[in-house]
What we know:
The complex is a heterodimer of chains A (431) and B (127).
Chain A: H1 2-18, E1 32-38, E2 43-48, E3 61-66, E4 71-73, E5 79-82, E6 98-102, E7 113-121, E8 130-139, E9 148-151, E10 161-169, E11 176-184, E12 187-190, E13 203-206, E14 209-215, E15 225-236, H2 243-248, E16 251-254, E17 257-262, E18 269-280, E19 284-286, E20 289-306, E21 317-332, E22 337-351, E23 355-360, E24 366-372, E25 376-386, E26 391-401, E27 408-425
Antiparallel strand pairs in A: 1-2, 2-6, 3-4, 3-7, 5-6, 7-8, 9-27, 10-11, 10-27, 11-14, 12-13, 13-15, 14-15, 15-16, 15-17, 16-18, 17-18, 18-20, 19-20, 20-21, 21-22, 22-25, 23-24, 25-26, 26-27
Chain B: H1 7-14, H2 22-35, H3 40-53, H4 74-86, E1 97-98, H5 113-123, E2 125-126
Antiparallel strand pairs in B: 1-2
Helix pairs in contact in B: 3-4, 3-5
Amino acid sequence: MYKARFRSLVVLLVLTLSGMPAARSQECTNQFNRAVWHPDQALISANLMHPLRPAEQTQAEWLLLDSTGNVTVSLAPVTVQNYGDPDHPEAPPRATSTSVYVRPMQPLMINHTYYFRARNVLTAGCKKIQAEIAPTVVLTERKTPPVFAVSPSTSRDDSDFYLAPTIDGASGSKASYTLDGKFQYRRAWIAPQFGTNTTYRPGISFTPGMSVKISSNPKEDGDSVNIRAPVEVLTIVDPISLPNLAKILPAVIARPGFVVEADKKFHDVNAIFSDGEYFVLHGLDYGPMQIVTEPMVGLETGSNLKAQTVGTYPSAILRADLGFRVVATIFQPSKGKPLFSLESNYIRRLLLNPEPTYTQDSKGNLVLLSVGTQPRDHVDLKISYNLTPLVALSVGYEFGELPPVYTKVDNKYTFGVTFKGQLQAKPKNTD
Amino acid sequence: MNKKSNPKKKRMARTPERPLPKEAAAAVKIEKVEERRLRADQLETILIDCIPLAGGSHDPIDLSNILQFYRLDKDSVLVFAGYVVGSADYGVRRFQFKLPPNALDGISVSSKLSEVANTIQDNAVPA
């Protein structure tokens, strides 16, 4: 009995002196905790969940694969470092703080994704060598982004800059030239905040911009000049508190703002406060085609600043809007990049107070047709084929009436080259 | 009591700190850098959770794919950014990190997941 007690005491003493209790079985299955590329020292440090003894890693193999180029990177002899106790680097640390330092023999490529894995590693306190440690991702150094950079966009709607000079044909008219342009800047002011033990807060962004459509054809004078200073309010449906609703409707985006709408000669100018509520829905997949739909409801109110004809605005402007946007994108299955995109926007303006409708004579002068509250519709459809990420060939169709003069765009077809993209502002860290 | 006359403080000041071995000092520096950055697996978890919640698909995460590949439209990209920055359950805040409100302003439907992951990792700081 004394012998047994003495033996257990000796075992306890040995374990205490070694600084490391015998590893539990689950601790013998090691895995990478994190891996970070240190460009200043040209090395990768990979932290492990459970400690290693550097001297025991004679059979260990460390492998680095460039997944972007699918190439194995040769490595200099690997160092296993315990930095739990700097004075005793050979002793297994009390905390889980073993890191492996890997120095690639060649410079790593910027913006590439590497996988780091290990074979035949022995975790401290274990008897059995672990054949394989699951790979971990290593992201390499990035180029410092410029203050403004440009990235591709898919359509007019999601572009920050958009320039589409087109040759147009419409029923009963000669070919004409139209410039469809847009510039917009977006900056987030307040980040949304939601979730467990968090006070709900929507996100707010500022997105000023200008939209221009100028045509050489006097009959094609739709939404000519539109200057807006909208605020964007992002209301995310919290999936914890409203799980069923969040599955259908992830978020609602409100875009209230002041808009100046005018015809291209600024003969009729309205100052409007508009608010559109855009319902973000889940997208749908049909093989290589994806379809995204976004219904909207809106309200526009304001007053006429300058009328083409006196007495055409008997009361304040008040409109209720209903509409939707559909974007269908066909992907190249092999490359996962969009090949064709089809975008359609429809809006019906229900006028609650009378507004005028104009047509244009052959000289381009506005001629009053009527004043009334009949609904005004507008639909456009555009098919784009991406030549490069920033340049696309496009075919478009447009029909309907747009404020302020509601000149009818009658089955207008367009063909042209579109330059489009998004601006990327370099964010600043908060600390 | 005058601080300068405190004998305990004087004694402590006279005792020089033992210099750390060169490698250990470098290791401590690396550890500090590691601790101040989101890990790759945390980034992957954020992407896996936030893309479907923002209206995208559940397709496996491949860092070379663009956001549009996951059925994210221009507005659902804003929702995705909202989840990453603001969700206490699915975004960077679940790992005790924070992002500036405009950190993901530059991402678009044509941004690669690797670019998104890099942007998150570059801008996330411990909360």
